[in-house]
Amino acid sequence: MAQEYIAKPLKESCLRMEGLSQQLIDEHYNILYKGYVNKLNEIRGKLEAADPSKGNQTYSDIRELKVEESFALNAIKLHELYFENLGGAGGQATGQALQLIEQSFGSYASWEADLKGSAMAARGWVVVAYDRDDGKLHNYIADSHNSYGVWNAVPVLILDTYEHAYGLDYGVKRAPYIEAFMKNLDWEVVNKRIAELPR
Fold first, then answer.
1. What is the pLDDT of residue 199?
2. For the domain 21-84, what is the CATH code?
3. Which of 30, 108, 111, 179 is deepest in the core (most CB within 10 A)?
4. Any idea which fold 95-195 has?
5. Does the pTM exceed 0.90?
6. What is the DSSP string of the chain?
7. Domain ranges in the chain?
């Protein structure tokens, strides 16, 4: 029997952020994120009944279920990381995060400019990840939950750029949402992730 995935609780500080309304976060978490959790559990239940001997790369039940499993599971993981790195005091990075940013981008200002440009260009996500091969941070974009993932890179900061992440508060204006996101970043969480990196 497939193990049920349980939704992670939302930090209380995420419901008291400047520039990101409680209604926006509540709907994002309770409708969208929890919806992905429900779908993942449904998909995994169907995978148990799928016949692996009938796998086919053009079309088969197991192919479709495996593709959608990656979509739902990555949606869950990205949202969990996103909500976890929100609800902080924002401002410039501190500690190991600042050191790694400066080592990777030359300066905090260069990293921030690249992050904001990436956020305007991405259709779905910006994933700030530590590449274990070159030992640096990179701002990667993803147009959907299961696209453009970079292997052997560990996410340390996540920015959701889908319109559902800001539409209720900002309509189609993404730039002010990005500024609000930066004001509410939890650098303590980012530093904790960096401290736990496998190197």
1. 73
2. 1.10.287
3. 111
4. minor pseudopilin epsh fold (3.55.40)
5. yes
6. -PPPP-PPPPPGGGGSBTTB-HHHHHHIIIIIIHHHHHHHHHHHHHHHHS-GGG--SSS-HHHHHHHHHHHHHHHHHHHHHHHHTBSS--SS--HHHHHHHHHHHSSHHHHHHHHHHHHHH-SSEEEEEEETTTTEEEEEEESSTTSS--TTEEEEEEEE-SGGGTHHHHTT-HHHHHHHHHHTB-HHHHHHHHHT---
7. 21-84, 95-195
